[in-house]
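Quick one before lunch.
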Amino acid sequence: MSVIAITRLPAPSLADCELSFVAREPIDIERARAQHAQYRCVLAKLGCDVRMLPMQSSMPDSVFVEDCAVVLDEIAVLTRPGAPSRRVESESIATALAEFRPLASIQSPGTLDGGDVLRIGRTLYVGASARSNAEGIAQLGALLGPHGYVVQSVATRECLHLKSAVTQIDDDAVLLQPAWVDRGVFSHLRVIEVDPDEEHAANVVRVNDQLLMPDGFPRTRQRLLDAGFSVTTVPMSELQKAEGAVSCCSLLFRDLSV
Ligand code: CIR
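Model of the citrulline complex:
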């Protein structure tokens, strides 16, 4: 399957990013750029057509493009990020996505971060987090219902986004951190839990039946390998200091033109 990956270079101001659950540490911006380049390279190797948006120097979190939109085959929904500082990121994402999908958008007082949206089949599980409010989740449901999607709100705890706690690894399987989301929500699926010593390991990206995850989580990686998954790792230390993970650095969607 041909997959488009929209990405954006880390801004020089990355160190001024929003932080919720991790303590601020110095970020090496040159290393962040090198890690981002490696991330893009792996996405390309996994079969993505990687696009890069112009850097937004004054927007510290603008590398985390996932939070600004939810892209489905039928429509792209521009979110209204929960952190007010991040709402300025949407304009250029809208311009980029207009080439590929009809656009809709979440309106005030709704808030929604793409990192809270986990699509599995025709269901979108949406984290009711500090970033995505009930109004935003309801608006998403109203926009997507006519396209045959069901939107289900999911409680999260002690983490930034739903996809910090759970991501899809197969058509019928998820990787999950049980401390941050109820395993029971996904009991109809096969659940692999992260290793208890690797609390941030649940965020992986699935591209063409391969998994991409940060290095630094060897035990969880081994669990995935033992279960028969193909796993590629990338260094992410600097983006992790900005509370980022692998999914948030790209907007992945099917290329419908081929
Ligand atoms: C933020 O707090 O918004 C950024 N520093 C990190 C966003 C990470 N996004 C994601 O995991 N989807």
